[in-house]
Recover the amino acids of this structure.
C-alpha cells in the first residue's frame, strides 16, 4: 500500500470518527447551549470592566457615588455569571429536546431547571461573630448555581431531558376531554412524565447519599468535574485537547467538535471566577480561561491565521496568494478566517496544516509562561470573539502588556508561517506546470 493511499485512508478514518462525535446529540446540545448563553457572559465581562476598571479611573474622589454606580455592573454580574449553571441547565434541556423533535422542548427546559434547583444544596453554612457555625435553610448559594455548578448543570440538563422524553414516549397522558382549553390539556398531558422525572431524580439523589454519603450534585463534582478540571487546568492537557480540535479543523471539521463539550465548560467557569475576583478587588487565580485561548491561540481566528494573512500580503510573489491575503485582511482583523482556511486553502494542505496546528500551541505555551512568572496579567474580562487582536489582549487582561505580547507573537508567527507558505506555493506552482 502506497504512503499516499495510507495517508488518505487515515484521514478518512479520522474524518468519519470526528463527524460522529460532532453529530452526537448530547455533545451538540452542550455546544449549542453555550452558544446560546455566551452573550450574557460577554455582557457580564463588559459590565465588570466598565464598573470596576473604567469608573474608578473617572470617579476618584466621590467614593459614595462610585459605589452606587458600580451597583449597575454588580447587578448584571449577579444575573449572568453568578447564575451560569442555572442558565445552562434549562438551555441544554430545551435544545436536546428540540433537536430530538420532542413536541414540548420548552417543557423539557423547565423540567431541567426544576431538577437542577431541586438537586442543588438549599442551605448555606457560615461562622458567626462568636465563632459558632450557623446554617441558613431555604436559600440557593451563588457558589452552587454559578460557575462551580456548570458541570452539574450540564449533567442534570441532559439527564432530566432524556428521562422526560423517555416517559413521554410511553403515552402516559391524562385526558381532560374536548371542552378543556387546548393549552390546559397539553399541560396535563405531560403531567405524569414530569412527575415521574422529578421523582426519579430526587429518589436517585437520595439513594446516592444513603449509599455513598454524596448526593447527585456532589457525585457529579467528584466523578466528572474534578477529573475534567485537572486535565483542562493543566497547560499540557489544554494544549492536547485544543490541538486535537485544531487538527480536525485542518481536515475541514470545525474545532468546536472538541472545544465546545470538553474545553469550554471548564474554561468558561475559570473565566467567570476571574471576572468575579476582579470585580471584588481580589487577585484572579486562573491562567487558563476562555480569554487566554482567545487572545493567544486565535488571533485572526483558529490557527492564529492573521499572521499568515500578513505573510501573504508582505512576503509573497505569488499573485493569487497576495490577492487572497488582501481580501482576507478585513475579516481576519475580526477573527474570521474561513476565506483562508477554505480558500487558500489550509484544509488538507499538509505544509500549512503543520503551522496551523502548532503555532496556536506555541502561543499558548508562551502566554502561559509569561502569566505564570507575572509579566502578563491574567485574563479578567471576557471579550467578544470578534474583537481585533491587540485590542482583545488589552481588554481581556486590563493591561497594555496583554496587547503588546499579542503584537510580538503576531510578528513571530509571521516568520513561523513564512517557510510553510513558500513550500505550499512551490507545490502549487509545480502542480500547475505539470498540468500544462
Amino acid at each position: 500500500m502506497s504512503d499516499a493511499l495510507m495517508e488518505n485512508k487515515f484521514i478518512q478514518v479520522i474524518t468519519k470518527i470526528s463527524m460522529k462525535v460532532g453529530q452526537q446529540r448530547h455533545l451538540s446540545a452542550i455546544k449549542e447551549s453555550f452558544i446560546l448563553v455566551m452573550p450574557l457572559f460577554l455582557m457580564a465581562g463588559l459590565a465588570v470592566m466598565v464598573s470596576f476598571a473604567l469608573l474608578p479611573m473617572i470617579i476618584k474622589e466621590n467614593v459614595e457615588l462610585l459605589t452606587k454606580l458600580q451597583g449597575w455592573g454588580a447587578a448584571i454580574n449577579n444575573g449572568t455569571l453568578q447564575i451560569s449553571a442555572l442558565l445552562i441547565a434549562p438551555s441544554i434541556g430545551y435544545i436536546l429536546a428540540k433537536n430530538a423533535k420532542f413536541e414540548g422542548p420548552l417543557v423539557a427546559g423547565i423540567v431541567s431547571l426544576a431538577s437542577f434547583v431541586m438537586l442543588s444544596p438549599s442551605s448555606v453554612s457560615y461562622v458567626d461573630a462568636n465563632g459558632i457555625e450557623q446554617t441558613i435553610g431555604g436559600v440557593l448559594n451563588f457558589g452552587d448555581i454559578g460557575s462551580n455548578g456548570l458541570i452539574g448543570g450540564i449533567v442534570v440538563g441532559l439527564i432530566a431531558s432524556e428521562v422526560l422524553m423517555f416517559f413521554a414516549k410511553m403515552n402516559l397522558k391524562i385526558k381532560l376531554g374536548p371542552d378543556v382549553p387546548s393549552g390546559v390539556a397539553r399541560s396535563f398531558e405531560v403531567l405524569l412524565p414530569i412527575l415521574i422525572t422529578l421523582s426519579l431524580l430526587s429518589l436517585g439523589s437520595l439513594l446516592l447519599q444513603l449509599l455513598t454519603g454524596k448526593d447527585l450534585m456532589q457525585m457529579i463534582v467528584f466523578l466528572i468535574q474534578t477529573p475534567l478540571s485537572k486535565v483542562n487546568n493543566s497547560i499540557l492537557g489544554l494544549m492536547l485537547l485544543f490541538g486535537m480540535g485544531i487538527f480536525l479543523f485542518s481536515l475541514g471539521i470545525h474545532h468546536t467538535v472538541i472545544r465546545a463539550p470538553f474545553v469550554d465548560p471548564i474554561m468558561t467557569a475559570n473565566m467567570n471566577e476571574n471576572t468575579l475576583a476582579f470585580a471584588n478587588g481580589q487577585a484572579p487565580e486562573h491562567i487558563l480561561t476562555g480569554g487566554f485561548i482567545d487572545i493567544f491561540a486565535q488571533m485572526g481566528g483558529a490557527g492564529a491565521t492573521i499572521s499568515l494573512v500578513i505573510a501573504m500580503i508582505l512576503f509573497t510573489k505569488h499573485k493569487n496568494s497576495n490577492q487572497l491575503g488582501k481580501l482576507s485582511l478585513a475579516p481576519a482583523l475580526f477573527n474570521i478566517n474561513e476565506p483562508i482556511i477554505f480558500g487558500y486553502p489550509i484544509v488538507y494542505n499538509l505544509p500549512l496544516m503543520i503551522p496551523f496546528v502548532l503555532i496556536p500551541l506555541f502561543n499558548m505555551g508562551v502566554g502561559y509562561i509569561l502569566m505564570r512568572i507575572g509579566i502578563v496579567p491574567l485574563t479578567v474580562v471576557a471579550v467578544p470573539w470578534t474583537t481585533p487582536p491587540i485590542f482583545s489582549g488589552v481588554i481581556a487582561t486590563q493591561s497594555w502588556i496583554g496587547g503588546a505580547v499579542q503584537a510580538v507573537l503576531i510578528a513571530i508567527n509571521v516568520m513561523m508561517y513564512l517557510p510553510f507558505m513558500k513550500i505550499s506555493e512551490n507545490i502549487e506552482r509545480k502542480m500547475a506546470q505539470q498540468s500544462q
Summary: The chain has a mean pLDDT of 84. Residues 80-232 form one domain.
